[in-house]
Write a structure and sequence with these properties.
The structure holds two protein chains of two kinds. By secondary structure, chain A is of the alpha/beta class. Chain A is 44% helix and 22% strand. Chain A has a single domain, classed as Glutaredoxin. The radius of gyration of chain A is 16 Å and the shape is globular. The termini of chain A are far apart. The chains are: A alpha/beta, B alpha/beta.
Chain lengths: 162, 205
């Protein structure tokens, strides 16, 4: 019985990434803010991007790599697409499958009025993309309005996973 | 002695502040806007203040290539149509470095202005001085300025309205409301808003 349960769990773990490969949850801001208020000791890396933002698209694979490398260091990457909801099937999903982004969680923020929520994410954010947050319950919160290289991301992450 | 130490600390602090902070915040409502010249419909190079019929301007940092700017393009045309005759014409400025932003060259801009029948000047911010001074960080970003003698005072900065995708669904039309208030000599109720956009492609950045 226990054996079967384990087998089932293994299968679930092995297949989960494949099964849920390009799933994109469409969320409202209150759901996003729940996501941002991490209560355990996971380091949350939240990247705001859009398929139309060239520097975002260029750095997205680095977040994929970062998540894959550091999953066991309690690092969780969330990619928040700011594409229009109408572009979900047309642009966002095809883009994700084309570029092979499958490890981080991807959500699409369905909010049309940035004035209502941007300030709550980070008062310093001008609205330019890409925008990235590092959040840890004890180590605090940092935000960056700039694109990253993989090496820069690793360097930023280091103090969080020490 | 104490004083010199204090000064030492102060200057070190200032140095640190200047050395590590991102670019200055840019214009806030109430600031005097840096003047510039543009070519009018007759092809003459004129300064902002030379256009005597202008009570102010709707200055839009925008570009050819950003999908958000494209989504707002018709709304910018509509603003000019609505307000140019009332003394607040639109001036569009493209701050992107054309070397880094394919599709934002002077030729591309000219083409788009003709194709989309721009009724307003569409300027190249070649050395990006205007965008840096005004504090625009992404396209589209709007500055509404109001004449005060020969200078122009920033009265609004931010987004055109509160629905990026569909203007007809917008419940707040920030720029329209701001200009209407100025035309009635009233203070602008919402003088600054935030908006999502494409980061400006800076030179060597």
């Amino acid at each position: 019985m226990i054996f079967f349960r384990k087998l089932w769990l293994c299968l679930l773990v092995i297949w989960a990434p494949a099964c849920f490969a390009q799933q994109v949850r469409v969320i409202k801001f209150n759901q996003l803010s729940q996501l941002l208020s991490t209560r355990n000791d996971t380091t949350l890396i939240v990247n705001f991007w859009a398929t139309w933002c060239k520097p975002c698209v260029e750095e997205l694979p680095y977040f994929e790599t970062l998540q894959a490398r550091h999953a066991r260091n309690k690092v969780k990457v969330v990619l928040v697409s700011l594409d229009f909801k109408s572009q979900l099937e047309k642009k966002v999903k095809p883009f994700l499958s084309k570029t092979g982004i499958r490890t981080p969680q991807v959500v699409l923020l369905d909010e049309t009025d940035p004035g209502q929520w941007m300030e709550k994410v980070a008062p310093s954010w001008s609205g330019a993309l890409p925008f990235t947050l590092f959040i840890h319950r004890k180590k605090g919160r940092k935000d960056y309005e700039k694109p990253f290289t993989l090496a820069e991301l690793e360097a930023e992450l280091r103090p969080y996973i020490k | 002695m104490k004083r010199t130490i204090m000064l030492g600390v102060m200057s070190a602090l200032l140095f640190a502040t200047f050395g590590f902070l991102p670019p200055a915040e840019g214009y806030q409502p109430g600031d005097r806007a840096m003047p510039f010249k543009y070519r009018n419909k007759q092809g003459q190079l004129v300064a902002l203040r030379d256009n005597v019929s202008a009570k102010g301007y709707i200055i839009v940092f925008t570009c050819n290539t950003c999908p958000v700017a494209q989504a707002y393009e018709q709304r910018v045309l509509d603003l000019d149509k609505q307000f140019a005759s009332k003394g607040f014409p639109v001036i569009a400025i493209n701050p992107n470095d054309s070397g880094r932003s394919w599709g934002d060259s002077y030729e591309d801009m000219k083409e788009r202005a003709i194709e989309k029948k721009y009724t307003f000047p569409y300027l190249v911010d070649a050395n990006q001085e205007l965008a840096r001074t005004y504090g625009a960080r992404h396209t589209p970003t709007v500055y509404v300025v109001q004449r005060q003698g020969n200078s122009f005072i920033v009265r609004f900065t931010g987004a055109i309205d509160n629905n990026m995708e569909d203007g007809s669904q917008a419940t707040k039309k920030y720029v329209q409301d701001a200009v209407n208030a100025l035309l009635e000599n009233k203070p602008v109720a919402i003088p600054t808003t935030k908006a999502i956009g494409c980061s400006i492609k800076w030179k060597n950045g």
